[in-house]
Amino acid sequence: MNIIGYLGSPRLKGTCSRLLDRALEGAASAGATVRRVDLIRQNIQHCMGCCKCMHDDPALAIGRCPLKDDLAALLEDYIRANGYVFASPVYDVSVTALMKKFLERKIALSHRPQEAYATIGESRCPAEFKKGAAMIVTGNCGEEYRELMGDPCFEIMEAHLIIEQVSTTDKLYVGGVENMPGEVMAEKEKASFDAGVRLVAEIEKSRR
Fold first, then answer.
1. Which residues contact 122 (CB under 8 A, 6 or more apart)?
2. What interhelical angle do 182-206 and 15-29 show, nearest 10?
3. Model pLDDT, residue 13
4. Residue 191: how many other CB atoms lie within 10 Å
5. How many angstroms separate the first and last alpha carbons of the chain?
6. Nearest to 165 by CA among 205, 122, 112
7. Pairwise CA distance, residues 26 & 4, whole Å
8. Region 87-98: what's the mean pLDDT?
9. Less packed terminus of the chain by CB within 10 Å, N or C?
10. Burial zone of 204 (CB within 10 Å; 0-12 exposed, 13-18 middle, 19+ buried)
C-alpha cells in the first residue's frame, strides 16, 4: 500500500510539517510505503481556467494540460497511490496558496465534455471508495475556532475527493499552534500518528 503526504506549508520544518510526518509514520507502522511531497519544492504553475485538461480524451487517466511543469508527474504518482494525507496551515481562513494551486490543477483527473454546460466533471479514474485520505489543518486560533478556521479548509480539500470517490478518514484541526505547550503538541502528534494508522486500516477494510 502506498500513501502520499502533501505538505501545503512553505515552512518545511514547521508544526504542520511535523504533524504530517507523524501521520506518515503512523501509516508506515501499519505496513504502508510512504512518501512526502513538499509542494513548495514543486514547479506547479497557476491554472489558467482553459478547461483543456477536463475536455481532453475521456479515455486518458489524466487530461493533458498545456502548461509545462511538474504537475503531470505528480498526478501520475497520485493516481497510483492508495491513500493520501493533505496537510495545510490556515492562511486567511483557507488553505495556503500552495495547496490551493495543487488542488485546482488536480481538475485534470476529471472529465467533462465541452458541450456539457453547467455540469460537474466525472472522475477519470474513480476510486470506488477503495482509497482514503486524512487531512491535517493547523492554525494559530484555538480549537474553539475549528468551524471558522478548519472547516473551510477541509471543504476545499475534500471537494475533489468526493468526485474521485475517495473516502475521508480523518479531519484533524490543530489550533493554537503559535504558543502551544510541549505536552499539548505531543498529544497532537500522537493524534496525527493515530490518523495515519487509521487511514491504512480503513483502506484495507474497504478493499476486502
1. 110, 111, 112, 163
2. 40
3. 93
4. 17
5. 14
6. 122
7. 12
8. 97
9. C
10. middle
CATH architecture of 2-206: 3-Layer(aba) Sandwich (3.40)
The whole-number pLDDT of residue 117 equals: 80
**In terms of C-beta distances under 8 Å and separation of at least 24 residues, what long-range contacts does 180-189 make, across chains too?**
180/15, 185/15, 188/19, 189/18, 189/19, 189/22
Rounded to 5 degrees, φ, ψ at 48 are -95, -5
User: Angle formed by the axes of helices 71-80 and 97-105, to 10°?
Assistant: 80
pLDDT at 200: 98
Domain locations in the chain as residue ranges? 2-206
Can you give the C-alpha Rg of the chain in angstroms?
17
Q: Is the whole model's pTM more than 0.90, yes or no?
A: yes
- Exposure string over 175-185, b if 16+ CB within 10 A, otherwise e: bbbeebeeeeb
pLDDT given at position 10: 97
What is the DSSP secondary-structure string of 115-137? Answer: T-TT---EESS--TT-SEEEEEE
Handedness of CA 55, 59, 62, 64 (dihedral sign): negative
Band of pLDDT at residue 52, cut at 50, 70 and 90: very high
Lateral strand order in the sheet of 33-38: 33-38, 2-7, 83-89, 132-139, 167-175
